[in-house]
Records
---
Amino acid sequence: MRLPPQSGERLDRERPLEFTFHGAAARGFEGDSVASALFGEGQRVFSRSFKYHRPRGLLCCQGTCPNCMVTVDGTPNVRACVTPLAAGMRVEAQNVRGSLDFDLLAVTDKIGGPFTPVGFYYRTMIRPRRAWPLYERFLRSVAGLGKVDKHRGREGRYDVEHRRAEVLVVGAGSAGREAARRHAAEGRRVVVVEADPTLLDAGEGFEVVHGSAIGIYEGGLVPVDAGNVLLRYRAQHVVVAAGAMEQPLVFPGNDLVGVVLPEAVRRLVGRWSLKPGDRAVVIAADAEALDTVGFLEQAATEVAEVVDLRETRVRQIAARGRTGRLASVELDGRKVACDLLVMSGGRQPAYALLAHAGARVEYDSARGIFLAAEIPSDMEVVGSAAGDGISAAVPAATYNGAGGKGKCFVCICEDVTEKDMKRALAEGFDSIELAKRYTTVTMGPCQGKLCHVPSIRLYARENETDEATIGTTTARPPWQPVELGLLAGRPHEPAQRTAIHHRHEELGATMMWTGTWKRPHSYGDPAGEAKNVHETLGLIDVSTLGKLLVTGPDAVEFLERLYPNRFGDMKPGRIRYGVLNSDAGRIMDDGTIARLSEEDFYVTTTSTGAGAVVEWFEWWNAIWQLDVEIVDVTGALAALNVAGPNARELMARLTDLDVSSDGFTYLDAKHAQVAGVSSLLLRIGFVGEVGYEIHCPSPYGEHLWDTILERGADLGARPFGLEPQRILRLEKMHILIGQDTDSESNVLEASMPWIAKLDKDDFVGKWSLEHVLERGFRERLVGFETESGVVPLEGGQIVIDGRPGGRVTSARWSDHLGRAIGMAWVPPELAEEDAELTIKVNDSVERARVRLRPFFDPDGERLRS
Amino acid sequence: MSFLLPCPNCGPRPVDEFTCTGEVTVRPKGAPSLRELTDYLYFKRNAAGIQREWWRHRHGCQAWFVAERDTRTNEVLSVEVPAKR
């Protein structure tokens, strides 16, 4: 069905491409779009409309209207007219029940009109309320565009690229190119973005990038949709040369297959050598559309009549069709047979991008167009987008014919008719912004490119005022349809791995996230691993702990201001546990502070809190300006904790340091060679048994790990993961920040009053903690054990008199104790040893007893031994 | 928000490289009354206009600095690294 080869056609007739449409073999050429290939195969109906399931064919042929949207290789809502054809494509039509030519739901068009006016679902489908899910399912299945295949995996990969340009020109038409040349001649680096693949030739001094700008954001940020890549351009200067959009006329049957905008004719004939129809009528309200006559003649389409609305007054235009296809047009009652109707209501400059950037939009009543005004200083607008070359149209002609018999579509995307708009007005939605929200006009895939101006004109006419008074709705990005994948980008989930990560994997550990770190949950036997710590010797990788060096003459002063503890009285070589508080008295993080020398402190934080603590320290010192340096050595150092009755024996084998209970006592910190590695040894433990934390340079982490397992093999050395550590910690009633505490918790109510030295002059959080004392406690964090041995759910409720009165934050079964233990926030009056708690577990309740002292080794004798 | 923020060390950078901890407040001296304390902790000015704020170039030089920003336009009028005493 192609014309003989035409000069300037974009086809490579030597290279045919095979594809399928609904499974049937079809053929096009290199250079075809999906739509032109289908058109060449004789396809005229491309989709069924959003609401009424009316047959729809090519209308704009430039990626604006929804009519040619198809599903290609499983991807829905592909605009066929601007998607290059590729061999092997599987193309399918959308929103069709039955077939494109016989859609079962087209009945809504025949009988639905009176029953399904605008907003009908707000009014008619509200009773009974519980039936709404049914209604909704039905509505969603009959209305809409393509369907996302939920079972289809993500095949494509989307990426984001950050780019810079001194000058970014949107649009490579003649005006855009002229502006690009001008800026390039002045020595600026110019990039032009253009969506139309026929306009991509690079120019002198500038590059042309294939893609479409989807908006202009502050700071000269212009995201460009370039297929599977989102190009985030930062430009110092943006030139908008986005052209103008042909506007449709509104008359009965203006959506029939065969009613087209002028550009469709230009492209079908000029690019793809297709004959757009046999007999055509051209109705134009402006001069620019009249050039289509030449294209029609080139395609040997008989031009039955050309109506120039600027000269000829036609009061009643109506298109009549059979089975949705154009058969004739009535001009004031005079019937002209035709299968192609080229309509043009004039051209509207594409101002939306400028409106995103803050430009005002004003109406040029002489020409009947909206133009951007008060352009931001780092932008300019050129060409048709600025209104250049747009001759005066006859705006009033937009509605010649409206009111006649048959549906007049204002909005093709959402099937909003002239009648719907009038009804919205009658119901009181008298501003154009309200009309938009009620009728959804301008909210479809074209985003108002074809319906914004007609809807404003209709409101102006019905309100007997002018377009300037009605005004525009707010333009917001995206200006072009964008795939969600493009906005989501490639998922970036960077994982931090410790120096010993690969050993954990070799040992079969189940890895889990803690913050951005990957850590072993367990090595397959949490209970056994915990038991091993109690009985012989456990080893855990704690490299993820945040590690900071705080050093300088003011280090003591600095830490004393930040922590509720005292540090001045601490001897070098000693360690204290500290809790960081916000000035509102809330717990932020906890860890240990080791004094290495007069002016050097080694601070550890939780695994997830390191970044926040560094930021917190540096922020306060930006205010205080104390003479102190803060160095984050988290990644530089690996850390291992060995714990258990055999830990001391192991350490004696690995180091020359005197590790006897007198030589290296609980809460001591010492430098030593451990397995030949310079390390910092901390005698701390939060698992209840004698423990040593060995901090060494990361590169030696694996060596140390291997050595410990090797030299400790006969001592029972075995790694343990986070889950056994949770059990062991809980036995000692050590709180886990973020698990047992939340953003409201403070150290007093969390039952650690000894932390806060309220007799200090000042520390961050002091005043708020004093206030907590004044107002009295509202809750307390306590331990509990259930009587039945059932382990309640973490997050479960404490029930008091049938009402929720507290919550469980941690709960585990301890094999070692033979009890189910946990921590919970309870009302202060229940924070008494042996107080009875009722905990909701699924549908039943469990009785539990409050415990205020550690479940295991309450006096810390084992730990300190 | 996609404006450029002039880092005192690195120059204008996209705002998503930074963290903002809100307007600059003054910590009361001595023992504040409950009203002074809650004013300091919770009652921010939240100005529609020029506001002094703490920013940190988290994904850059990591410096803390104070920026004067017009909250209506995101225009940054000045940036300043707190001076050493």
---
Amino acid sequence: MSTAPVKKIDNWPNLIGKKLPRVDAPQKVTGDAKYAADCNQPGQYWVKLVRSPYPHARIVGIDASKALKHPGVKGVLTGEDFNDFSWGWMPQTRDERPLAVGKVLYYAEAVAAVCAADEATAELACELVEVEYEELPGVFDPEEAMKDGAPLVHEQRAGNLSWDFHMDYGDAEKGFAKADLVREERFETGRVITGFLEPPAAVAMWDTDGITIWASKQSPYFHYRHLAACFGLPLSKIRVIQPFVGGGFGGTKNDSLAGDFCAVLFAKRLGRPVKFVYSMEEVLTTCRRRHNFIVDTKIGMMKDGTLTAMQQTAIADGGAYTAIGPLTMYLSGVMGTLPYKLPNFKFDAYRIHTNNPIGAAMRGHGSTHTRYAAEILMNMMAEELGLDRLDVRLKNAIEAPHTTVNGITVNSCGLKEGLQTLRNSEAWQNREKTPKGGPIAHGVGISGTSYLGGARQRGHQSCAAVVRLCEDGTINYLTGASDSGQGSDTVLVQIIAEELGLTLDDVSIRRVDTAVTPIDAGSYGSRVTILAGQAAQKAAREIKEQLAEVAAGVWKTTADRILFNDRTVFVDGDPDKSMPFRKLTQIACYDAAGSVIMGKGYSQYDLEEYDFEQGYGNPGVSYSFTSQLAEVDVDLETGIVNTTNFLIAHDSGKPLHPVNVEAQCHGSASQGLGQALYENFKMDQGHTRNPTMVNYMMPLATEHPKMEVVHIETEDPSGPFGAKEASEGAIVSTPPAIVDAIHDATGVWFTSQPITPEMIVTALKEKKSREKKANGKAS
Amino acid sequence: MTPITCEFVLNGRTEQVSVAPNTTLLHMLRESFMLTGVREGCGHGECGSCSIVVDGKLMNSCLILAVEVDGKEIQTIEGLAAPDGTFHPVQQAFVDESGMQCGACTSGMVMSVKTLLEANPDPTREEMKEALAGNFCRCTGWELIFKSVEEAAIAMRQGAAR
């Protein structure tokens, strides 16, 4: 008779919702974690890129003879070496080439690549490549670029129109006619970048079996397709191996780089491994950025705060190429109908080419611009109508279930509860008691936002998992999902361990190797926990079913009575029948001739097709809701803003790993803080004048407020264990909350990002002189 | 360039190496000793991800030439755990409190925190912010790093009291 304690299933779940260490923490605190730049191959060469000194120029000729004669130089590539290959998100938008052909369209675009025995030689030899340019007039402002007669970035794209997107639901004009107050304002977002600390890097090899590349990618399978297309190889010959990734946040690491293609082509031609590592200056000058937007926003509101209609016209600086820009336009519009009840919504977006660096995806993709505009305008109107900002939000907040005018279906929503959390906070309760006159004025701001999870992009969407049972009762988990730092590896391991009644230590994650792991679209659009999590859960359940059959045979019972918990397998309700998981594994693997136990799963969701062109239907499988409060101290003398506190009430459904959910909210809010107050590329005729970390000014330890995250738990039927997204909500909610807080402190509305001390000082001076004039007239 | 031979103590072992005089300490550690836990972020002393300890002082290894450490004692993240693998209290606190996300800043951050706590065993949040202002982190928003520092400080004070 077994003495193993019989566990009832009622202590389930064991791991979900608990404070657990990250599975990658030991490798990261010891320095063991290997990133792409840490990967080396014997005999490797190095590649460096020759970059254009002009933002718009015709390439007259390239003379590499001096470089090729330099000792240690192994080869030079130019655009023509890639034949006709170009890449892009959609078949009709493939407009980017590994190296420029004919023309350069933005400053520091790569025009040639030099391969040498070592990095320093490659870098030095880049200066020996003689490129003759004929400089062309450039265009750097999207509104200028739309005008007749503006220089064309792509000759075939009239008006420099890269992509436009239109939505019209309900009847906005009728909504405005009905409203007590209609107001229209222009908002602008800044020129910002993801800001990952690990510069892109890769080591590529080529042999008769195809390509092997260790590359820093958050969507390695996109890169895998790009390489197959570029080099005319079947996908089965493309092996992208993903090391640890030092931050992604969308854009660059979801895509391929000039360096990647050049390293592979050199590896093919020279028969040696070829490596590159971008410099931080290359990152800050050439890598994909968030689009900067102009958003003209018009809202209709009743006297009681009820929204009647919203109309937004967005112009985005797309820069030189299309990249994933069409999706940005779609997301900036389609999410406009959340998180408030909005019966009428019209949206028109124009992505415009300029000779600036390329605009692409970044955390809070698209909706961060338009939601920011809408949130601030709502507050302006609440002020004008003498209404409480929080009341206006509560009045309009949706409740689940809800269907928006553009067909988004919300099955769970913690917005009202989140807003109530803000209302009950000390900061909100005491907001009237804090000093306003100076020298330091205190302000409290709020916002209420929503973000999609489980993004449904065009094309292949599914995540898959393969779980292999080892004969000692441990697990190898093969996933195509990528953790670029957000903690998804931990959550996915947690899901498998939970399903099988094991511990985190029993499950070893095997990260992406496209020759081994199942295909996956990667990390973007808050999709990993929801979709890869679902796949992992299904795969673990397949193993469980196989083991339950074996256990049922041993105990002469039925498989549905077999339970797994605490590394033990037992028969429900029969204390005599239990055994260690490891023992059952051995029985299962060695029974008769032996068997191989594997499980597989892939994500599926029961959603209708959505209409990308019309912005109708669900852009994700579920929606998070973030209510945020920000407190600031504004020095009225210097204009310096000190953010002192963030309270983030986030509805991520069921938080599977609450610490990770909080950490994602913190990090998201930190990037939102940078956008709101500090970060901005200073552009001068296409040149980035501040391409260093110090001058670009991402927030440091000293700029960060205290942050508190309150979990608003809801149950969403679509995610594993009821989970929704956690990583992008707070980057959408932070900037408008800060703008609102600065208004609360100063009485001034700021409509563009970032809000610099100079802007505050200037605005306060103007306000003072206006008040003086008004007083003069009155007296 | 003629290589120069230098000798130093690296993570407790005496080492001798021949390096070009323009090699940074960062590149020597990564390339000659394969200590890739010493990360390169910006390469210009702006991000702190290559932070190491030289003769007890925190340094950006990208800003020092390798030849400058001749005769000195260097500690990198790889030399922080005890020889039996037991984590330093700062490492353990970062594990327990999830004081990292992508990990690109973590090596330098841990070295920086260790140096801070050796000088100031019970820092306030303001003191932490000042001391860690040279270590850039894009992922965490700092909340869990500060929490890790607090936990590490408690563990180190308890260790010192024993």
